[in-house]
């Protein structure tokens, strides 16, 4: 807690949350790699050059290398929680040292084990932001109220069509 020296009263402090991956708190985070990128469209033209007229933001990706050492039971439990987080395929929140991510999924989870890591869990989780969109259905007005029913009317079942052989000349 910080103290305001002029009035000697307690001043509010900001508590920074611990790093977490979907509510899982590793003991140590060795590395976080944040990736933000754009896709810039390219269209070739006759002269061989290309031009770009549009760009869109690709989903954010964060890779976290972290670990924990505890009893073998705790290590196994943490690994199971990470696998369940991936298997559920439900968006979750990640809090890193740099920023907070929402609507993330575990894209890859790798766990290297060798003689130095046998009694610990070291993992690399690569998580990707997903964009959740809503779906809305609508009904078209009756055909008699449409200005161009041939273009705007709902599709109609045309029945079964039998292909015909076309002979070449």
List the helices and strands and how they pair.
Blueprint: E1 20-21, E2 28-35, E3 38-40, E4 43-44, E5 50-51, E6 55-57, E7 61-69, H1 72-88, E8 92-95, E9 100-110, E10 120-129, H2 149-152
Antiparallel strand pairs: 1-8, 2-7, 3-6, 4-5, 7-10, 8-9, 9-10
Structure characterization notes:
By secondary structure, this protein is mainly beta. It has a domain at 20-129: Elongation Factor Tu (Ef-tu), domain 3 (Beta Barrel). 12% of the residues lie in helices and 32% in strands. Strands 1-8-9-10-7-2 form a 6-stranded antiparallel β-sheet. It has a two-stranded antiparallel ribbon with strand order 3-6. The protein has a two-stranded antiparallel sheet with strand order 4-5. A hairpin with a 4-residue loop joins strand 8 (92-95) and strand 9. The longest helix is centred in the middle third of the chain and has 17 residues, at 72-88. The N and C termini lie far apart (91 Å). Mean pLDDT is 86; it is low at 1-5.
